[in-house]
Specification:
homodimer; mainly alpha; 6 helices
Chain lengths: 221, 221
């Protein structure tokens, strides 16, 4: 009985890893769609989200079932409760990547990112990808990772978001209302992707140490 | 033992109800802050969110503990798994109300909602409040409620969102980039509040019937 339970728990952990890889691919493709006006990449993200949603439904049900049927304690309890929350974060990241891709698709064949704000958005896309990559490494290695670096990335993402508003609300913004609205929404989606990736990092720390990180970098609602 | 468990489960259900009331108040106050340029209402929402976050952390932990320790089955299992998800939706609604309040506060003493788009935003605020109220009634009565009415409200919210873009991206939009960006973000926040409220409604149907509603009105990622 316990062997079967242990096996199911291992499968859950492996599948969360795989879901994280799928989400990282979605985020990378969304960024490509956006920065390169790549329609195929956009369509791949949009059509691939149904798969991510079913991964989420499946993993969520399996975790809650294991919780209810196996009365796990200690490390396994932490793993399961943290995994339930992680899957929700991963599903939201997939949805946010779709929102990014849809804006890219709407503006095709033009780019949704005007030159004046391109360096900012490029950097925010890179941060989002890097943070997701850090979350994936943390999950793969199941070891305390450099949470401080993740927090620094997140602060930089916040600063880029503030800078976006300075750029689009400046008197000399030449690209019109639609482009400004696109950037306001894109910036929010990319910032939220980074938020969720940082939360996943904190869940990994919790699994490993039993403690959630404290401090202002971590208290993301 | 089982009496204590039954008691804890009842307390969880009562507390989810109370958290839903708190979130409804936050949404109502955020709308007041926005539509009436009411600074005190905005500040109340913003400062009150920490309380909502701690309600969420507490309820989430209690549900997962009951799941792990009591091996619930049937109706109680459904109640607990649905409640875990509901609390996450409620916490997000609180955060979204804060985002609405912060935009209202930023533009004070002016209103963040120009006249040309005011009927639209007023209606979307009302829908958000009404849908949250329907979710609260559904939770209070623990009975199958009129899911179709909730779905119609949600469709109307989607239509209002589309109309917002028509208004702010029109050639004759006279209010400038900042106001357009505000409306784009506000519309998203209010739409997401409605999304989460509909999800809560679907959780209630699941608790009562054991089934999640199907159909395009319900498959919100």
């Amino acid at each position: 009985m316990r062997d079967s339970y242990r096996h199911k728990l291992t499968e859950v952990v492996d599948d969360v890893l795989e879901m994280t890889r799928l989400v990282r691919t979605a985020v990378q493709r969304a960024n490509t769609a956006l920065l390169d006006a790549d329609l195929a990449a956009a369509e791949a993200v949009i059509s691939g989200d149904a798969v991510l949603d079913s991964w989420y439904d499946d993993l969520d049900a399996r975790c809650l079932t294991l919780l209810a049927r196996e009365s796990p304690v200690a490390g396994e309890l932490r793993t399961l409760t943290a995994t339930v929350r992680m899957c929700a974060d991963l599903a939201r990241m997939g949805d946010l990547a779709v929102h990014v891709a849809k804006i890219a698709r709407m503006r095709y064949p033009a780019s949704a990112v005007p030159d004046t704000v391109r360096p900012n958005i490029e950097r925010l896309c890179q941060i989002a990808e890097d943070i997701v990559g850090m979350a994936l490494s943390a999950l793969e290695q199941r070891d305390e990772f450099d949470a401080r670096m993740m927090a620094e990335y997140h602060e930089e993402a916040d600063a880029l978001r503030a800078q976006q508003f300075d750029i689009i609300l400046a008197d000399d913004w030449p690209h019109g209302v639609q482009a400004a609205v696109d950037i306001a929404l894109l910036g929010r989606y990319l910032e939220r992707i980074a938020d969720h990736a940082v939360l996943i990092g904190s869940r990994v720390i919790y699994i490993v140490t039993g403690l959630y990180p404290k401090g202002e970098q971590w208290t993301i609602a």
